[in-house]
Design brief:
By secondary structure, the protein is mainly alpha-helical. 50% of the residues lie in helices and 8% in strands.
């Protein structure tokens, strides 16, 4: 979205509605609103994964907010997070918690479900549908984002953390197909977790079988 002429994209995870106290929240939010206004663009967007747990608060503070709920096959998510955490159990619990919140957000409206697999299958169609949801025109240049590298992170001058470095690589690499990596990276017992109770319902809700 950062490539769109009508969108101001915040180049870091703000965590405005995370663990910050009320004073910090308003200070961060005010700074974001000022930057968005100075950009001269009618729409601004930011990406903080943890905000999926705070969408009710965001809606109260910003009644016109829209939510892009990004998701992918839960098994691939757990495979990826499991590497970072060093624990598939912790990764699975994170996926279940975030996916439950994502489901509620979709059901509450003002939201667009954006699936990684749909994007890989039909990139232009996926982005065009997203633009329609946001009320902006589709711009083909959005798919060429990797040709114009961007800096990611709030403190680019300092040594980047492992997380920031990972994000920097992600936002600048061309479209890559990482579907189905779980088949080679998850132990069978972890895969079986997705076949029971709430996990199965979540997988089915988001279109994964």
């Amino acid at each position: 979205m950062a490539e769109h002429s009508d969108v101001f994209s915040v180049p870091y995870e703000t965590a405005v509605f995370g663990n910050a106290n009320r004073g910090q929240r308003w200070g961060k939010l005010a700074w974001l609103l000022i930057r968005a206004q100075l950009s001269g663009k009618p729409l601004w967007i930011e990406k903080t994964p943890g905000h999926i747990l705070h969408t009710d608060t965001i809606s109260r503070v910003m009644p016109n907010a829209k939510f892009i709920v990004a998701t992918r096959d839960g098994r691939d998510t757990v495979a990826s997070l499991g590497k970072r955490y060093g624990s598939f159990e912790r990764a699975f619990k994170r996926w279940a918690k975030d996916s439950t919140a994502s489901k509620l957000r979709i059901q509450n409206g003002s939201s667009f479900l954006w699936r990684y697999e749909d994007f890989i299958e039909l990139p232009a169609r996926s982005i065009e549908d997203l633009c329609s949801f946001l009320g902006i025109s589709y711009d083909e240049a959005m798919l060429d984002y990797h040709k114009r590298p961007t800096a990611w992170g709030q403190k680019a001058i300092r040594k980047m953390s492992e997380h920031a470095s990972r994000r920097q690589a992600q936002v600048n690499q061309p479209i890559r197909d990482y579907r189905g990596k779980w088949k080679h990276e998850l132990p069978p017992e972890v895969v079986s977790w997705f076949d029971h109770d709430d996990a199965r319902e979540l997988m089915e809700f988001f279109g994964y079988r």
